[in-house]
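Project outcomes to date are best conveyed with an example. Our students and postdoctoral researchers have been running inverse folding experiments weekly, and each run begins with a structure described purely in tokens. The record below, which covers 212 residues, was selected by the lab manager from last quarter's runs and is presented without edits.
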């Protein structure tokens, strides 16, 4: 619960009180939802960050951004008003990754551990591509090489319907010269060096031969 700094409420089991300077229980600091006054989603996500187990903290933030309920930029503004937030650096890093285009824990892992470094190109993330009447978004796009790296989640290969959708999408992108390369969740976590080497080899093979 958020209250003005002078409120007499105290934290107790099942209730955490956040006292805020210059906080007023009125718009724009609060909104009305189902007859109740609640803090804005950005402030709520920042406040809940230290209250959740560490393994569960990122999911609500990622979901809110993916569902377009907020943006990394608006969340960063809310975070700036909580300089003493527990594990603040981790939330700031998450917001940076989301602003860079990462949209899942798997993409963040790939960004930080695999598809980075001096030999890697400056991948564009979540690139919007329109082919005919269809619009699709590319996970990691190397524009010069026309290579799209897709990071498949742990459940992707267990779903035949999703696999068929992915194959049709890859074929569509091939019609405009984009090569799709997919790496499974297992390989990204257990074989990151191999994935990196394969990616660099593929990118090299797609670059124009300037020696001729």
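After processing, the design step wrote out the following sequence:
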């Amino acid at each position: 619960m958020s209250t003005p700094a002078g409120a007499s409420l105290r934290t107790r089991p099942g209730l955490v009180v956040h006292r805020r300077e210059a906080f007023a229980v009125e718009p724009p600091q609060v909104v009305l939802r189902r007859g109740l006054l609640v803090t804005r989603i950005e402030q709520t996500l920042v406040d809940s960050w230290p209250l959740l187990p560490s393994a569960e903290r990122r999911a609500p933030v990622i979901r809110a951004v993916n569902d377009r309920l907020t943006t990394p930029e608006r969340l960063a503004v809310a975070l700036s008003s909580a300089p003493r937030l527990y594990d603040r650096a981790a939330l700031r890093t998450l917001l940076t990754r989301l602003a860079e285009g990462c949209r899942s824990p798997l993409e963040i892992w790939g960004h930080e551990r695999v598809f980075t470094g001096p030999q890697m190109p400056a991948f564009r993330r979540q690139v919007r591509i329109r082919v005919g009447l269809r619009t699709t978004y590319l996970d990691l796009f190397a524009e010069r090489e026309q290579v799209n790296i897709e990071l498949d989640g742990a459940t992707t290969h267990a779903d035949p319907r999703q696999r068929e959708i992915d194959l049709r999408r890859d074929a569509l992108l091939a019609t405009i010269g984009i090569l799709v390369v997919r790496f499974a969740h297992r390989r990204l976590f257990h074989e990151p060096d191999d994935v990196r080497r394969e990616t660099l080899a593929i990118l090299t093979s797609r670059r124009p031969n300037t020696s001729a």
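The chain has a mean pLDDT of 88. The chain has two domains: 2-102, 106-206. The training component of this project remains on track.
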